[in-house]
Every structure is written in structure tokens, then in C-alpha cells.
Amino acid sequence: MSYRRSLTGGALSGLGIAAFVDETVFHQLLHWHHFYDRSTPDVGLVSDGLFHAGGWLAMVAGLFLYADLRRRGGPLRPAWWSGVCLGIGGFQLYDGTVQHKLLRLHQIRYDVDPRPYDWTWNVIAVLFLLAGLLLWHRARRAVRERSR
Amino acid sequence: MTPTPAPLPVLVLLCCLLYTAAAARLRHRGDRWPLRRDAGLWLGGGLLVAAFAVPWESWLPPFTAHMAAHLTAGMAAPIPVVLSRPVTLALRVLPLPARRALVSLTRSRLVTALLYPPVAAALDIGGLWLLHRAPLPPSLHHSPLLLLHLFLAGTLFTFALLAVDPVRHRPGLAVRAGTLLAAAAAHAVLAKSLWATGPPGTAFTPADLRLASQLMYYGGDAVEIALALLLASQWYRAQGRSLRSHRGTRQPAPA
Asked: Which residues cross the membrane (chain B) (predicted)?
């Protein structure tokens, strides 16, 4: 019952967490990111608007899915955590490649060479994705063993 | 600042009193009608009057003051008003002929189309884009009817999205959540674009534009998160109901 819902709920929560950390830590606390960088093209603004709105919508959905899974005796832990890692890694990789570089929404930090920051950002994203895939593998194995 | 039209507070007060009288009649005849619904209408009415009456301009720069009034009237006030379920109340207390008329109105094609969430959202957010990006006569921005219009458009959107009052067809959660996402994104994009460029034909200072832009962006978030929480709790309660009705009859589901 709860394999797919656990994975979905985890992924939504991960997306929400990544968007939240991005917004609070890098925008509000460190002031590294800019609210609006004048060189942002329109398509960048649309992508940013969708991910900004989608981030907290995903967080709300993730929390309610978690509550519902708890009520049903879940969640299936490896599936949940796999979803969380995939959500965080997926958001961060998209943000670090498409939004920062391709759409040039804004840079991670200004007045410094952004390359080390970009590498750190994207390598962390890939590590999250790898951890998510590993956990996904374990979750599927656990489900198969249980159904046997 | 936008002058408060004198009849508005009186009209709002009359609506609130009428609602309370109707709710009292229901309770008197033994129906259940929670007091929080009455409180919702009064709160929404209060917010609407506040949008007009608060001297925003004495605290905030001019464009930011407009934005604060817009957020209050167009986004904050509609939520408690919609949650007070005015249509349900009217359907319960009106005499039969009037009730029939109201039912046929809520089931008419026009109302059904207007209440389809993507349509309601397009009208609400589309109007907002026109207001900020189309070359409109400057006098329009100071018309008291503008705030009232924003309130009505916001109420249409909230009504269609939350769908707590009975209408002909209540769309599924996916349509409503998708509409909220699209509307919130369009709102955020407009807010962010105001950081750099004000509405055409206006000359607000950059500092004013930036403050207003962030107020619209983060204020919009707060209201949209509230809408998301309301939608999610509708889903959660519906899941709980189906869980209770299945429990005991259903075998433990295979994993």
C-alpha cells in the first residue's frame, strides 16, 4: 500500500525542504542570492515563480502525506527517505544547472569567482541523488521480500 | 489614498448582520451552524473595510501602500468570507421559491463555467496582470471600485478553489491544486517583475517598487500557503473518512 505513497510523499517533502533551505539560508540569511538579478530573462522568472510556488506547495503536500501514512501504519522508511533524497538532489541539480547557469536566474554568490560554488552545489546535488537511488533499490528489495 | 466610499462599511455591516440573523434562525430551529462561520464573515468583512479605511499611505511609500490594500482586499479578506459558506446558509434559510432560484443560478452554465478553477484563476490573475502591465488610465488606480473589484475577483477564485459551498460540479483535487500552483507562480512572476519595472505610466521610486514587489511576493506566499493548507486538510479528512468506512471490512493490503 504505502510504497508509492511513501516515495511520493518523501519526494515532495525533499523538494519542499530544498526550496525552503534555498530561500531562507541563501536568500534571507546569507544574502548571497539576489531577489532579482536585472539580467534575469523572462523564462528564468517563470521557472523561478513555478519552483518558488511549487516548493512550499510540495512541502504542504508532503507533510499531509506523511500524516496520512502514519495513520495507515507507514511510511515505508527506505522508500520515504529515498524520496526525500531524490527530491532534494533533483531540486538542487535543477537549480544549480538549469536555473543558475542556463537561465542565468542569479548566481550563487556575487563579486567572487562562482565556479567553486557551482561545483560544490552540483556535486552535493549528485550525492543526494545517488543516496536516493541506493535507498530506492533497498526499498524495492524490501517490498519484494515482504510480498514473497 | 483611495477615499473610502461612505456606503461601503454600511453595506458590509448590513451583510454581516443579515448573515448573523440567518444563522441565528437556523440555530433557533435546531440546525447546527458553527459560530466560527459567523466569525469568518465578520473577519472577512472587517478585512475588506480595513483595506479601504487603514491609512496605509501614512506608514508606507505610495506604491507599497496600494499593494498592502490590494493584498488585504483581494487575497486575505476572501478566505474567511468563503469559509463562512454564505451560499449554504442562504440555501437553508431562504423561502422555497427564492431557494429554487438560487439553485438554478448556481447550476447555470455561466456560473458553472466561472467556477471552474482554471477559469476563475485566469480571471483573477489575468486581471491583476492587466492592472499592472496594461496602459490603463491613471484615475483607475485610485478608484475605490478597484479595491472592491479585487475583492470580488479574489472571492471568485477562492470560492472556486476551496469549493466548500455546494455547486454543480466540484472538480478533483488535482485540478484545484494545479490551479493553485499556476496562479501562485503567475503571482510570483508578476511580483518579481515589479521589482525592476513599475506599472506603465507611473513613476514610483525604485525603493518603493522594491518594497512593494517583496510585499506582493511574500504576502502572496502567506495567503497561498493558507489556501494549500486548507486544500490539503480537505484531502486529509476525506482520506480519513474512507479509511474509517473501510476499516474492518478490508483485508490488510498487500505491500
From this structure: 6-27, 39-56, 68-89, 110-131, 143-164, 173-195, 215-236
What residues make up the domain containing B153?
A: 7-92+105-239
pLDDT at B9: 86
Distances from the Cα of B52 to the Cαs of B48, B209, B244, in angstroms? Answer: 7, 21, 47
Indicate the residue type of A85.
Answer: C
pLDDT digits (tens, 9 = 90+) for B91-104: 999 999 999 999 99
Q: Is B232 inside any structural domain? A: yes
Q: How far is B173 from chain A (nearest CA, A)?
A: 12
Going along A49-148, which residue ranges are E strands? none
- Kindly indicate the confidence band of residue A97, based on its pLDDT and cuts at 50, 70 and 90: confident
Other CB atoms within 10 A of residue B126 CB:
12
- Measure in Å the smallest separation between the Cα of B75 and chain A Cα atoms: 16
Of B185, B195, B243, the CB nearest to A49: B185
Evaluate whether B87 touches B41 at the Cβ level (below 8 Å). no
Over residues B87-114, the mean pLDDT reads 91
Mutate to test the interface with B, among A15, A36, A99 (most CBs of B within 10 A): A36
Q: Can you tell me whether residue B105 is helix, strand or coil?
A: helix
Residue B58 has a CB neighbour count (10 Å cut-off) of 8
